């Protein structure tokens, strides 16, 4: 009796395994057929497909190109960034010897890298030379400029630099202390604003891509209405009907992502020569950087994901409305 049960169990397990293998092979075969058929239908309509790819590519390339521009500006700002400098304007009545002594004392501090003393007479002479206002300077009863100390602190955080500025400004010989990093803070604020704006633009344009793809798949569903009804009449499931449509969205998304990567690369190529020439004219080592191979592949994969998302939304909304009567 036990032998019969064992034989009966083994006999049921083998056909069950065969059924699962057959299902797996059928599922895989239908996926490959759906991918090939959907690609053939996309390619068979070159004009409409190219227009869809171009719309998707432009929508993807626009925020990507702006992000590349911001990345290059950030790289340029890092090259332009110079060490922070404190300008100490001394009291008007400070004599030269005490000002030089203060500069020597400050240079010995651990949080200060170097100091430079600028005599008021030298500062006035340089101002007259650069501005060309020599006649006006001759009419002044006395030199209105104070002695100046240019202090280069040891690289530190913005908070530490601000604390150092307050500490130096509290010295009795100092009238006012200015920290020369305001331009860099403004640039960083503009960069942050630019990144937020590009992110917002990217979200809006990518949502537009999903809507465009969803509308394209909706038109494909309507064109295949009779075919879908026949498939459902013979017992085809929604998943069976959905696969070719999802692959259609995938091909549109892949093509749009590839077009977007090509547009960004083309724009970088066209701008690289004049930008690099301008950089060389200013004796800068800045070189315009575009998307690398990995970033370009990620852009193509992003297009594929958007294509699948748009197709899935369209199929989930419109496929259930098509039922045989």
Question: What does it look like?
Answer:
With 325 residues, the protein is of the alpha+beta class. The chain is built from ten helices and four strands; from the N terminus they run H-H-E-H-E-H-H-E-H-E-H-H-H-H. The chain has helices at residues 2-43, 46-80, 96-107, 120-131, 134-138, 158-169, 182-223, 225-233, 238-281, 293-318; strands spanning 86-90, 112-118, 148-153, 174-179. Strands 2-3-1-4 form a four-stranded antiparallel sheet. Helix 1 (2-43) crosses helix 9 (238-281), helix 2 (46-80) runs antiparallel to helix 7 (182-223) and helix 7 runs antiparallel to helix 9 (238-281). The radius of gyration is 35 Å and the shape is rod-shaped. The chain starts with a helix and ends in a 7-residue tail after the last helix.
Topology at a glance:
Elements: H1 2-43, H2 46-80, E1 86-90, H3 96-107, E2 112-118, H4 120-131, H5 134-138, E3 148-153, H6 158-169, E4 174-179, H7 182-223, H8 225-233, H9 238-281, H10 293-318
Antiparallel strand pairs: 1-3, 1-4, 2-3
Helix pairs in contact: 1-9, 2-7, 2-9, 7-9, 7-10, 9-10
